[in-house]
């Protein structure tokens, strides 16, 4: 059976500052329950694509000038980011962005701000987050600014989970982390996907690792999708091997 489509990006073009054309017609589809990788080198347009989906471009003087973004068939182009969170779509930004002066646990609780289903459910989800990230439980009273890069990545992901998302847009979880930690983060993504049914759209430069965990991948080059396919096929593709695998 074909999985239901959650997110559909259709031929979007993004321009920064009215003149710089960065996305030149990007299309992609994210099915429910999938882990979909958006791959490509530095500056290819991965972050821009995620921000176009979650409507975070405006503060950067960027805009979608063509094409459409649909979530569950609804145009989300004009929704504000908080409305999207209520619809189940949340972005984990590149570079983590914790509230440095709050504790780990306080950071996680800020992720529940759009919810109105009561303290007991939020408390249960905090335990759910700690079950995936036991390290965060150990450090729950520490100020987030003093935790390691890997722990801050976990805080950012845990905070996103606290909104009970249907879809997480995850921007470069591997950035700046040691290989072993990267693997650990991807293992956690996989188990959240399998056990909680959370769908992931994952932007990554680490092609190797992303294709090991994703079901399907899109490769972005200078603002265009140049190749896409099931992850297993991309891993075996000679061009992907030559240009992307072994790169990171
Ligand atoms: P990275 O991994 O380096 O973040 P990326 O694939 O995510 O790369 P983007 O961050 O989407 O790439 O950037 C795509 C292009 O858009 C780059 O050439 C970048 O310089 C440009 N760009 C990004 N943000 C802006 C902005 N606010 N104003 C102008 N140009 C921008």
Structure summarized in a few sentences:
The chain is α/β, with parallel strands linked by helices and 248 residues long. Helix content is 37%, strand content 28%.
List keywords for this structure.
binds adenosine-5'-triphosphate, 10 helices, four-stranded antiparallel beta sheet, six-stranded mixed beta sheet, 248 residues, alpha/beta
Ordered list of secondary-structure elements with their pairings:
Elements: E1 5-16, E2 20-31, E3 35-39, H1 46-53, E4 62-71, E5 74-75, H2 81-87, E6 89-92, H3 104-110, H4 119-132, H5 134-138, H6 149-161, E7 167-171, H7 179-196, E8 199-204, H8 207-213, E9 216-221, E10 224-230, H9 231-236, H10 238-243
Bound molecules: adenosine-5'-triphosphate.
Adenosine-5'-triphosphate (ATP) is lined by residues 16-17, 20, 22, 40, 42-48, 60, 62, 205.
Please tally the helical runs, counting DSSP H or I stretches of 4 or more residues: 10
Q: How widely separated are the two ends? A: 35 Å
Look at the helices and sheets and give the structural class: alpha/beta
Rg (C-alpha, Å): 17 Å
- Work out the strand percent: 25-35%
The total beta strand count reads 10
Quaternary structure classification: single chain
Shape: globular
- Stretches where pLDDT is under 50 for at least 5 consecutive residues are none
Secondary-structure element pattern, one letter each = EEEHEEHEHHHHEHEHEEHH
Read across the widest sheet, the strand sequence of neighbours is 6-7-8-3-9-10
